[in-house]
Known about the structure:
The protein is α/β, with parallel strands linked by helices. It contains 25 helices and 22 strands.
Amino acid sequence: MSDIKIFVTHTPNRDTMKVQNPLLYNVIAGSDFQTRETTEGIYRDNQGENISSLNKSYCELTTQYWAWKNIEADYYGFCHYRRFFSFNNEKIKVSDWGTIEYDYLDERAMQELHFNEPDMRSYIENYDFLIAEGVPASCMNARTVYDHYRKAPELHIQDVTLFLDIIKEKYSYLSETAAEFFDGKTFYPCNMFIMKKELFQEYSAILFDVLGEFEKRADMSEYSREGYRTTGHLGERMTGIYYLYLQKQKKYRLGEIQIALIYNADEETEIKQEPSENVVPVVLAANQKYVPILYTCVQSVVEHAKAENIYEIYVFHTDITADSQKMFHDRLGRNHIKFTFVNVSKRVAGYILQAKEHITTETFYRFLILDILKMYPKVVYLDCDMIICHDVADLYHTEMGDNLIAAVLDPDFAGQCNMKTSDMREYCRNTLGIENPFEYFQAGVLVFNVQEMNKVVTVEKLLEMSDTGIYRFSDQDILNVICKDRVTYLDMAWNMIFDCDHFRWQKVIKYAPYYILDAYENARKNPYIIHYAGFLKPWMKPDEDFGYMFWDVARRTPYYEQILDGIRNKGGQTVTVENVIEARAFKRTRLLLMKLFPQESGIRRTLGKMYWKLFG
């Protein structure tokens, strides 16, 4: 059985996906620049004889040099953490750039690519040399390979002339083929190939001799960063030249192999925290656009956090940048407060997760608590359109027994259910299966009894329920269905929903049963958490109910000016000015119709049902 080693190159100091496969060897290309500690099983290209320090010009070729000088194998292969080979004997549909494209290298992708040891071995051992499938120059808006290089904005065509001169001087038998390659119409991308040992040894000797001579003669002192990578770019062309040369020999088993591009290749954050009595785990979810609001909410959490507790704050996201994450770590981190950003892209891939109205997709991420943080007995979840006015540790320590969740009754939902013209009570009974609508809870503030919930439902089941699209209030409805009869009800002060557009209190909540209305009005006197749930927010309209509390905290954040700019130019972070105008116009129309038609009229009941069905 052949000793096949395919080296997957990774960028220094970046948390990228490490695929587990017996034939793959993950290597940090340019390990001289690695400042973080490397995990077990990751190779470094600065061990033994190496040119790791030249990575800024040689790029991933520093890994090839290290493997050539230090590693024994029958086959040597090279790919990247975002680009892998397809070992499927049947062609797979590709993009205009000649790559098969996937969001994630998940099970489905690996099955389609035949990314398993038996299929990989069977494929590879039929060849002496496999190269990344050629891409027509026309796909890159060029006539030839030479024309493509000439048009590259940060590369310099005189370097190709020097490169060809060196080949002619040192390896004259390759010179004609090299010229044909640059005059040709097919480009072989990415320095990706798999070669038998004898060919790899010969090719590497030629490659690094030519590139070494090029670096001696070329003047790259004034090149841009990309321009300084010229040595790597020329090495990429050398692979194609060598492949064409071997074709002329007509004695080797040669082939072109499709490559797959993986768009999301960041490694999933591994949570290793061991739960303890004084640790308070808190989860929020947001996207990059919502970072200013998220930060404001988290700052209010930090300002009320007691020093005797340890707060593990997790942010579930798919696109929050490293710079934004650093802002949280640097400015809000404390000895007793730690931040962990968890990219959940791969976990939610394949699900539709279409939230209704002003609710964002991130609302569904709270389901993932059951998997990602399953080591904790309990976890606090907070929406980020909130201001926290009390220590969330007190919320975390709520006694729950074997109940699945702790939450606050929803006064808005209760008011809707008590309106004669609303079909919400019918929806609650027939769709949600909840007989008593006044037990329905608001899901913006939750304490998950993680261990108990994992006994009755899986994350997959929750996400599948989300995909049905039958729930008006998205994940909130789903949690009410799952946790029915097993809820610990909190004081409404823990989730005091504000009087959105100065309308909700007197036009909706007042219809709720008196004890719920009493609880709501008491909560308003001293709220522990103010929840800006609704289509309008203080950062869209500053004079909204309890808006001053938001702005009091926002003023102390580094995002204050950005939030103000959002009001002036963009109409807020989640809803545009046009949305607000439309919503208000609709509200005025609805109030007019309510005045025109009597309380018990059939037309009014019909219009009411249509309204609640369409808009909630």
